[in-house]
Structures are given as C-alpha cells and as structure tokens.
Amino acid sequence: MLDLVDFRLVVEPGAAAMAARDATLEQRQKLLDTVKSEANDTVQHSLQFHRELGVATNNGFMRTILTALHAVLEWQTKPQILSDYDQAESGAAHLAIAKAVSAGHATKAERLMREHLEQFRQVLEREGRLDDPIVPRPDADSAIQMPSSAWY
Ligand SMILES: [Zn+2]
C-alpha cells in the first residue's frame, strides 16, 4: 500500500499541473461538475474525480497509468476508510484542486494535489494500513469487489 500511495504522490501532482495547462474547456467544466456533485459521496464518486483529472491531462500515458492506478485503489481500499476521509477533508480538497485546474493555475493545482495525497497517506498511516499488501489476500474483506468497468 505504501508503494501505491508514494507512487500517487509522485505522479498525481504532476498530472494536476498537466491538466491545468492542457485540459479542454469541457474537461475543466466536467471536473468542477464532478466535484460539486460529490455531496452524496461514495468511494467510486471520489475516485471519479481523480480519474477525470487523469483524462484531462490529454496525455495518453498519464491517462492509462492513472486509470489503472485508481482501479487498483478502488479495488483494495476499504470503503469505510475512504468515506471517513472524504467527509473530513476530501470534498474540500477536490473542489480547491478543480478550481485551480479550471483556472489554469498549474503550480497551485500541483501543490494542492500533493497536500491532498499527503493527508490521505496520513489517514492510511493512522489506520495502520500502509504495510497492507496491494493485492488482497483471499480472506480479505468480502466487501471489496473488483470494479467491472475500470479495466479498460
Ligand atoms: Zn481525492
């Protein structure tokens, strides 16, 4: 899990900066819309923001890597942990990032994403989950299900 979190910390701030520079007007608007509809937040909904940010980089490698990355994250993260985190902080962080991307503020978007992911890392650390294996063992929580639509 530490590997995944640290990888996100390297890649996603850069993706946020890239999206701030290269996203289309439609993509910028879609990011804002996604964030604003996070009121009924679920893990899937929250990760949707990160996926759309990857798409909005308009960089084929970044899209592919971030889609795979968030599929793994969605697959093996217990919903409860992410939803606690979402309620506390994630919605506000997503809104700030979406606004910075939408306004084309690459440096700010990058910094906000880094802060957001560092907070996420702290949540996992507090839950003692950083040393969890990426791939759940067969006896792992049965609530964790493979997303059917994420691997394309
Ligand atoms: Zn997030």
Automatic annotation (TrEMBL):
<feature type="domain" description="GntR C-terminal">
    <location>
        <begin position="3"/>
        <end position="119"/>
    </location>
</feature>
<dbReference type="GO" id="GO:0003677">
    <property type="term" value="F:DNA binding"/>
</dbReference>
<keyword id="KW-0805">Transcription regulation</keyword>
<feature type="compositionally biased region" description="Basic and acidic residues">
    <location>
        <begin position="131"/>
        <end position="140"/>
    </location>
</feature>
<dbReference type="InterPro" id="IPR008920">
    <property type="entry name" value="TF_FadR/GntR_C"/>
</dbReference>
<keyword id="KW-0238">DNA-binding</keyword>
<feature type="region of interest" description="Disordered">
    <location>
        <begin position="131"/>
        <end position="152"/>
    </location>
</feature>
<keyword id="KW-0804">Transcription</keyword>
<dbReference type="InterPro" id="IPR011711">
    <property type="entry name" value="GntR_C"/>
</dbReference>
<dbReference type="Pfam" id="PF07729">
    <property type="entry name" value="FCD"/>
</dbReference>
<protein>
    <recommendedName>
        <fullName>GntR C-terminal domain-containing protein</fullName>
    </recommendedName>
</protein>
